User: What shape does this take?
Amino acid sequence: MATPLNIGMIGYGFMGRAHSNAYRKVNTFFELEHQPVLKAACARKEAEIKTFADTWGYESIETDWRKLVERPDIDAIDICAPNNLHHDITLAAAANGKMILCEKPLAMNVAEAEAMTQAVEQAGVPTMVWYNYRRVPAISLAKQIVDEGRVGRPFHYRATYLQDWTISESVPQGGPTLWRLDIDVAGSGVTGDLLAHSIDTAMWLNGPITSVTAATETFVKERMHAETGQVQPVGIDDACMFLARFANGSMGTFESSRYARGRKNYNTFELNGEGGAVFFDLEDPQLLQFFEYQQLQSGKKVEDHLTGWRSIHVSNFEHPYMDRYWVPGTTIGYEHTFINALADFIAGVESGNHTQPDYRNALQTQKVCDAVIESAKTGQWVNTNVEL
Assistant: This one.
């Protein structure tokens, strides 16, 4: 019989649903010693959190997260609350000895992220930050290809993350659904919300980013605030582009916007190296494009007359995570990336070899995000000070 892992969820929005689904499904696909139990869900609005808890099968509710983190029947706290609450919840959860799973970005800024990382490390509690795109099988396969040396010496990394949902000037800022447009709650705009994913993936595949130079733009300067009804300045970045230098000597370009008409969740990356290249598009997630410049023949690498881009349908049992799901040729979806991430976290708790990204790893992404924002303000190259 599996050992219960009692979950306390804070938040009930998009990510609360995605995480709850993972908790309910993980043991049906992965053989684990622990089984998540949806013990309590928490949010300020009692009626809303009650509806959420009933829908997903949580045993109880709380309207004060401070009470939740103090409950002795809770093993792990899942932070799906807005960014401005991550710091305080983390410190309280760590002080109460709880495991912590936190949505990205880790914090509002590096100062908060450093304090949070220090707190969880001093408490010795397992942590994970939900950079779930690492668990897309095609992206995990790209990591495998890079680690096998098939790309070789890297030269260029380029990433885009484009959406179009904030183009209308009538979209308000703030409130429970649009807090990502409120600088006081989100900390930044596309940099922390979208590019944080791109940065995490880039450094996972290609190593530390050491310096950046950036530009940001806010296209709609004022919006009505959903909670006050007052029109006020918009402080977040609607679009961001930056250049990057990696510790391995390669160069990077990153672009993100919520004003890219026609793009819904266009998250792509391409890594070009001396020996090959990989390309991925989240809107076609079952495919990984791989370019192999040289073939191994008789123990030697030689140029091949069939060199070209190869489209790999990542659904075979030998591909990352896919032996847990359906027959080869069928695909899994966005929701499965959270199941995969959760399975890795629980397996890490059981083995003592904790999964990544943990808080310290996510702190490095926060450092790059802060450097990007600083560079956009100063117009200068800024060192990220990430751990090498």
